[in-house]
Specification:
The structure is a single chain. The two termini are about 25 Å apart. About 40% of the residues are buried. Helices cover about 5% and strands about 65% of the residues. Strand 9 and strand 10 form a beta hairpin. It has one domain: Beta Barrel (Porin). Strands 1-7-6-5-4-3-2-15-14-13-12-11-10-9-8 form a 15-stranded mixed β-barrel. The chain is built from three helices and 15 strands. By secondary structure, it is mostly beta strands.
């Protein structure tokens, strides 16, 4: 069992790769998830590994993403992790985004680019039964009709292995340095035979409102090399509800996977292909 006792964070978005997306956005309590570098780097510090991964995605609205992650918790007692994500989308300008010379009922495309960078540092103690870490992040956004913006983030976390096969995580912090929203979260991952199941409760709260999100995901090892992944997520604030799925093939230290996420309210879908290599 792995328990993250306390995490204080300032977060400006999430960086997930294909494996996390296929399992409903879980990965908070998965020591093999490169996405955990951004959300709880102490979780990946519990497992000696040297992994790199890259993923590309495209949505039904034309949004494209490219993500890269790397972690080294094997070559020294200090765990180092890096995540990068770049996203491009075309939305319709609204409100103050519209140019002053716009005509009523005329649509203006507002191309938007967002980037996330997260650097995590952690370390394991007592034969990696306990780990602690800190992550620093940077998020920027620019678009045709909006003023560019940027935000700095960071988090602290502590993890401990109590029993093998069961991982528990708890987090609390701040959503960004530019808002009064705070973040909270928790996760539980159980590895039972060829099945791994993880559930997360994450969200944000301010002085007046709390916006939780539930995520549930699982992985079934149908053979020594083939995995089937599935997940579900729900946000009470935006009313987003969706299902995810995917497949993965692992062989000789390499993992290749595909994932799809379907958002029911907007009837939108996102596809991702990723590769992870253990060196």
């Amino acid at each position: 069992m792995t328990l993250v006792f306390f995490t204080k964070s300032i977060s400006a978005g999430e960086v997930m790769l294909t494996q996390d997306m296929a399992q409903g956005g879980t990965g908070l309590s998965n020591p093999t998830s490169l996405g955990a570098i951004h959300r709880a780097v102490s979780t990946v510090a519990l497992k000696p590994t040297y992994d790199v991964g890259i993923a590309g995605g495209i949505g039904s609205d034309g949004t494209t993403t490219i993500s890269f992650g790397a972690v080294d918790s094997e070559s020294s007692p200090v765990t180092l992790g890096l995540l990068y994500r770049r996203q491009k989308s075309d939305s319709i300008a609204t409100g103050s985004q519209l140019p002053g010379w716009s005509v009523e009922e005329e649509d203006f495309l507002n191309p938007t680019t967002e980037s996330w960078v997260a650097v995590g540092v952690g370390g394991g103690f007592f034969q990696r039964r306990v780990a602690a870490g800190v992550t620093f992040g940077y998020h920027s956004q620019s678009s045709r009709f909006s003023t560019p913006s940027a935000d700095v983030s960071g988090n602290l976390c502590v993890s401990a292995i109590l029993l093998d096969g069961l991982v528990a995580v708890a987090t609390v912090g701040r959503a960004s340095t530019q808002t009064s929203e705070n973040t909270y979260g928790g996760g539980l991952r159980a590895n039972i035979g060829v099945v791994a199941i993880e559930g997360n409760i994450e969200g944000r709260w301010s002085d007046t409102i709390m916006n939780p999100m539930m995520r549930v995901g699982g992985q079934l090892n149908v053979s020594p090399t083939t995995q089937v992944l599935a997940g579900y997520y729900r946000s009470w604030d935006s009313q987003d509800v969706g299902f995810t799925g995917g497949v993965g093939v692992a062989s000789q230290g390499a993992w290749v996977g595909y994932s799809v996420a379907v958002e029911l309210q907007a009837l939108s879908h996102t596809h991702s292909v990723g590769v992870r290599i253990s060196l």
